[in-house]
């Protein structure tokens, strides 16, 4: 069969495949026969509607053609087997990858990804071959079973029983191998980053292109202070007490903090104003769980348990703390098929976010600029594939309008290919001028993840039927489900906004003016003044 | 331990005597004898000091198990002995079949427990639409009200060191603990802002002029609710994560009873403003947590649950927490007659008293508001005080589909 020559390539990680014995070997008898019914169902293409391969117009970008054969939920019975990570399966379009190998390879290079395309294709081919072999054997086993139904000579029956038994054992082995191969394939394939929008600049972060620049740095006629000093003098935050409460004495700062007095009102004002503004644009307000299962974190494209992970894990469970509301919101419609009429679904989620910031150190991380815990309002959109570019533009416009309303000086960047996260097809970052830091600092990020997340989260929609001419009802007349596209964008990351507002609106007497739009949400407060002691 | 300590001190005294003798001029044999004696004393001391350390740790462990003393007016007995201090309002009369908050929430598209069960597990939820505005409104209104009473608004870390949790009187790592721990560290998630706020002035001596220190802290709270099950835990009544505004007071010992009364009055005023029907209980001795000298719970009428449910708790912890957190204050000098300055003239520091009280536990408040203010057409009226904090919203109406 040639399978044995493919096994054991050095590019294959994790489990080595058990050697596949030839069917005629009598050694087969010694393997314990463990037929787990579910493993058969898992791969049977013909029985489950959800896993049907269907002809679909190939869209030029992304892995947007439908999946082959993989259910996205973890069958609970698999736990009894030697289940490998990942336990859930992304609905990756391997056929499309194979057919667009060069483009995928170029994309991987442009993004500095360490995905191993060769391994993926090799594993996929092996898996396809193995699958065919499994099907062939099943066919033979069925043929034998059918023969046994008729009238037979005892010797003939005996021979068939033997044959049937051999086939069955051979099948079990092959099916186990198929399972392992599939898991390996998944693990490699999930590393492949999303494709990239043709307009994205190719290169490292210095290649990012400025799309828009608004305002100009404020001119101060006095010596300005940074937000830490302003905060201290106005009694707005306490990093030292937090350091004690968390017993962190490193010089780069504790990264935990208490907000006090007007800073609390500023946080509440920012959140309330932001929610109110995006609700006017049709976004459904949400608050979300901040503890989620680690599988959901992975499905959104994050690595909860890697080295230098950004993710806090809960002891004694498979749960983690969220680093962004993108995760629990992405999970709302996991493993679902939405009606087309529901799209686009636009959520604005308020949550606290927790990040370990492992590996981040230095002056750029002082004060509120980089912290372990913060409040954020996040926009999340689920839409039809052909509309995601449109909603990406809408999201960045909403962000820009918010920041312009607050009078900030900022620039919007089209992030270069080397600076996109694996899920993002295209990413716009907004950097605002922070006079105290004497540079621009990121205050928001808007990503179009096309179907990268939806293939992992299992979120699809059912296109409405093209015509209702045919009187025949039932599934045969429904268009097959397609993966939605997902987008996420920061409406307001509170600490960074506080840095901006304090540093830009400071006055010579040490007070800070509140921008007009926020005042109604802060009980009319117009100015944060130094307190007399 | 006291005996051992005396013994240790005695030996140290002897060792010092020996050391002093060695300073003078001595016969070699005498010197040798003293060296021997010094060595024996040193070894003996080392052993005794180790024993003293172990004994001290054992003593601490046992002693920390002793609960706070109890206010003389506290009823003695189990939870059925708690006494009603105050009862306000009466159950609303409905001319129609009423619904519980879960059903109201479903019909008004206000929460999603099912999606949260998939994403996170049971007892998690998403708030949606007007429920989000209700949460924000409740928090903003509560903060605004208690700020008028002189409370300093705060937001706090929600991840803290487990030692701080213990010093506040909680058990992070017991069986059936309420506390979530972070993997690979000594950190935990807070179950209440009482913990990070208690920690602000850990190991400090405050000037008397700073007292009383009154904080109103807004935070998310996380509780495992291990061991809690049954119908009483459906919906928003018992959840793993919720928003809360917590009042925390540090004061001089002679004033803590006074501030306890002030705190419960603030709570009662808040709940009366919202038009709730509730009763305030003086909790019985068997129902106080270890830190509490006295505890007042407020239970509000929840028509959908057909019973009263706890919406707040106000505890006077006297010096139980401050002795563990190391929070003291320096009383001002009784008179400035003596010209001599320096520590000799300062009164010795004393432990502060700490108190904590729930100003607003959002999910329980949402249960109350939805169930009490439901209308026959399935809508819910917003109480007047909250409306300005909800963009003027007066009513949560069913959405046309």
Automatic annotation (TrEMBL), chain A:
Keywords: Aminoacyl-tRNA synthetase, ATP-binding, Coiled coil, Ligase, Nucleotide-binding, Protein biosynthesis. Residues 280-515 form the Aminoacyl-transfer RNA synthetases class-II family profile domain. The lineage of its organism: Eukaryota, Viridiplantae, Streptophyta, Embryophyta, Tracheophyta. CDD domains: SerRS_core (cd00770). This is serine--tRNA ligase. Its EC number is 6.1.1.11. It comes from Carya illinoinensis. InterPro entries: aa-tRNA-synt_IIb, aa-tRNA-synth_II, Ser-tRNA-ligase_type_1, Ser-tRNA-synth_1_N, SerRS_core. It is an enzyme of class 6 (ligase). Residues 120-177 form a coiled coil.
UniProtKB/TrEMBL annotation, chain B:
InterPro entries: aa-tRNA-synt_IIb, aa-tRNA-synth_II, Ser-tRNA-ligase_type_1, Ser-tRNA-synth_1_N, SerRS_core. Keywords: Aminoacyl-tRNA synthetase, ATP-binding, Coiled coil, Ligase, Nucleotide-binding, Protein biosynthesis. The keyword Endoplasmic reticulum does not apply. GO terms for cellular component: cytoplasm. The keyword Aminoacyl-tRNA synthetase applies. It is an enzyme of class 6 (ligase). Its EC number is 6.1.1.11. Residues 100-383 form the Aminoacyl-transfer RNA synthetases class-II family profile domain. GO terms for biological process: seryl-tRNA aminoacylation. NCBIfam families: serS. This is serine--tRNA ligase. It comes from Carya illinoinensis (Pecan). The lineage of its organism: Eukaryota, Viridiplantae, Streptophyta, Embryophyta, Tracheophyta.
